[in-house]
Amino acid sequence: MLKSLYIKNFALVEELFIRFSEGLNIITGETGAGKTIIVNAIAQLCGERSSVELVRKGAAKAILEAEIEFRPRDKVLKILQDLTLDSEINSTIILRKEITAKGISRTFINDTPVPLSRLNELSSYLIDIHGQHQHQRLLHPENHLEYLDAFGKLNALVGEFEALLKTFRAKVKERDDLRAKQLKSTQLQDMYRFQMDELTKAELQPDELETLSVELKRLNNIEYIHQFASAINDLLYQGEPSASGLIADAEDKLDKLLEFDRQFSEFKESLVNARESVEEIGRFLTDYLSELEFDPERLEQIQERINHLEFLLKKYQKASLMELIDYLNEIRNFSGDLEQFEERIQELNAEISELKQKIEQSGAELSAKRKEFAKAFEKQITEILSKVGMPNARFRVRFSFKENSQSVFVIDGKPVEVGDRGFDLVVFELSSNAGEDFKPLHKIVSGGELSRIMLALKSLLITVDHVPSMIFDEIDSGISGKVAQIVGLRMLELSKNHQILCVTHLPQIAAFAQAHFKVLKNTEDNRTSVDIKKLDEDGRIREIAGLLGGREIAEQTLENARHLISEAAAMKTD
After folding, report:
1. Angle at CA 148, nearest 5°, toward 146 and 149?
2. Which of 102, 353, 467, 574 could cross-link 128 (Cys pair, CB 3.0–4.6 Å)?
3. Nearest to 15 by CA among 27, 24, 6
4. From CA 1, how far away is CA 280, in angstroms rounded?
5. Count of CB atoms within 10 A of residue 371's CB?
6. What is the distance between the alpha carbons of residues 457 and 470, in angstroms, rounded to a whole number?
7. Parallel, antiparallel, or unpaired: how do β-strands 527-534 and 515-524 relate?
8. In angstroms, how far apart are the furthest CA atoms of the chain?
9. What CA–CA distance (Å, rounded) separates 128 from 501?
10. For the CA atoms of the chain, what is the radius of gyration?
11. How far is CA 209 from CA 199, 202, 221, 319, 417, in A?
């Protein structure tokens, strides 16, 4: 519900703060006092476009702010999540709008800047404004089907239809994706076959390139290898003198030394081990050199193999042989999938055909039930309109389909488009007076008629519409007396489930107020300003008396006002 409204430098308002109540809030005031400014301020916070004329003369900017308490709902939370605001919000949000004297506006939710379109979207689930030139969510044709289904309690059937359609679309997408993949596979089949043949023949090994590079380096440097290996062999084993020979001489001299001093005995084993190690290296080098030879044929083979592998890496744009092997396995699997495509596509076609038949049957059942409930819906709306001062009004629900030659769904022998809720297109229409043609609700321009139609719809759909706050402006246009009382009672009934704000000049409606506000216009120092105050019980009586009898309020008029309030109270309890 709309808990409070703050307005500063907006139109004729210098500054005011209003705290609204639950239930039925009535706003009254003399003609031209500025009642509509309150509604316009709320409309601005609901996403209506602003203009420089809305800023009070001489002010730098206008500021509008509303505190709204709400019960978390999926759609509201989704919008807040998209704006990354859900973590900051429990059950209260602040809508804020600033309009500069240059006509530039900024909108905020909880001090976070948001686009006007998102403010509009969010507020449509929080506040519903009904009055001339305002947005009416219920009047939008795209919402009519949802309301008719709610009236007929058809949402379970709609859910089944949506589930079937969702499955159907998923199957169609899967089939179409397979067909695209099949076509691509067919087009690429020859290329993949050639690539598989080329890569398979290459007998790729993950580490082969590194191994061949090591061998290539050895063959390219055979002379240096022979030179260094021979030099080492001479120094250690084959030369005169050699390391092994010198160590052997040291062993002989150590044996003689030991005859005189045994403390050198511990070095004997070390010398023997050193000589054996040097001799082992020497023998290895001798054998290595005997087998070492330059093989130009092997060198050429290695170079060709390396060149071929590097060519394949460059051709297939891979960084390693492992990536090339992975690619080979991938195209092998891809080609294997090609053989299964047609079989799976045929299976999907059968499933799609069965789902199509079920969807058409479900859609036809929904359409039949809707048309059945539409008759009761039309009758009850028409009856309510008659009671609220539109005795000659006729309400009807017009059904249609949107034909589309590309659609696979057929209803009544014609291909038609499908929506999430079925095949029906539903528009609410009204004939306001006898002899007039029916018109779609969204094309009705009379603010009074619009508001009463909305009141009728809201009365009937009171348990369906979850928008917490509703604002009615100009609802009393063209009515008076007993009809006005019925309108007031209807709004009171609505206020049991919704917060209602109603701008009125009729005492019969004002008498039902659970909170009564009066708008005042003041002129001081040649400046006009608008103020608003909440009336106590005595203030209510005097205001209703003023609505009944004009400026001069006689005791009889006050008594009539008390009687009107008592009469409204009695109607509440009936």
Report:
1. 65
2. 467
3. 6
4. 98
5. 15
6. 13
7. antiparallel
8. 151
9. 10
10. 46
11. 15, 12, 18, 12, 61
Q: What CA–CA distance (Å, rounded) separates 334 from 355?
A: 30
Q: Cα separations (Å) of 142 from 145, 148, 392, 442?
A: 7, 11, 27, 11
Output the six-digit token pair for 350. 């059968």
Parallel, antiparallel or unpaired: strands 469-473 and 127-130: parallel
Q: 264: which DSSP letter?
A: G
The backbone torsions φ and ψ at residue 132, rounded to the nearest 5 degrees and listed phi first, read -55, 135
CA distance 543 to 506: 11
Task: Look up residue 97 and give its two tokens.
Answer: 């709008």
Q: Which segments of 202-242 does DSSP mark as H helices, in order? A: 208-220, 222-233
Give the total residue count for the chain.
Answer: 574
Q: Give the C-alpha separation, 246 to 260, whole Å.
A: 22
Q: Is 515 helix (H, G, I), strand (E, B) or coil?
A: strand
* Short-list 470, 461, 477, CA closest to 389: 477
Tell me which residue has tokens 């709609």: 158
- Count Cβ atoms below 10 Å from residue 65 Cβ, excluding itself: 18
